[in-house]
Amino acid sequence: MSSIQCRNLSFSYGRHNRHVPVLNALDVDIPLGNLWAIVGPNGAGKSTFIKILAGILKPSRGSAHLGGVNEELLAYLPQHTDIDRNFPISAYQMVAMGLWRFMGRSGGLTPELRARVYDALDKVGLSGFGDRSIASLSGGQLQRILFARLLLQDASIILLDEPFNAIDNKTTADLVQLLHHWQAQGRTVITVLHDLDQVKEQFPNTLMIAHRVIASGHTHDVLTPENLQKARKACAEFDENNLEKLHKAHAF
Q1: Do residues 34 and 180 touch, judged by C-beta distance below 8 A?
Q2: Looking at residue 204, what DSSP letter applies?
Q3: Burial state string for 75-110 with b = 16 or more CB within 10 A and e = fewer than 16
Q4: Of 6, 3, 17, 1, nearest to 242 (Cα)?
Q5: How far is C-alpha 218 from the geometric centre of its chain's CA atoms?
Q6: pLDDT tens profile 31-66
Q7: CA-only gyration radius of the chain, Å
């Protein structure tokens, strides 16, 4: 299998008659070794979809297969809001967490592994920041730290959820170059994004979802006015239908 394959992939929050549908019967293939953007209206299920690929959420129905890639070779970066900035950990320790697959039973770092941590910090432009607490870092600096951790994970599939929100243009440009570097190495990079201009400029492939698949393929074929209109309409219809179901569920 040379692609991530989703078949009848559906997901709902809640239980029984109070469930809230988010994804409905997604059928899509995402070829491995490419750079992909996931786009769609707010609340369309983009983050839910990528969390299912990451194994954080389990689908209510259907399946998602990672093209034969071992789950240990998958890396996931959540949104900023999902990261506890007050956790008492240094930048060095945060980056070193990316080496968990390579640590022995003791969990310690060999001199070679420690050197890899400092090299990763240098590659993201934060040489000398190792002793800083993550609470003291700016948003852009924290994101560089998280990308340094991804560097050390050496994953075959890299999943990113809105990685460029609320960071400066220079940091965004540097991190986008890292994405292209990973793709050039043959890795699969899948990124949830809302900036369509950035998608057009930097991402050759796009999957557009609005609770279901609207379009998938080359970015210039996907990001058309017609597809954007379909996505907005699909979200509006989906939300209206499920609001009506919830009202009926509570009517008794």
Answers
A1: no
A2: S
A3: bbbbebeeeeeeeeebbbebbbebbeeeeeeeeebe
A4: 17
A5: 19
A6: 999 999 999 999 999 999 999 999 999 999 999 999
A7: 19
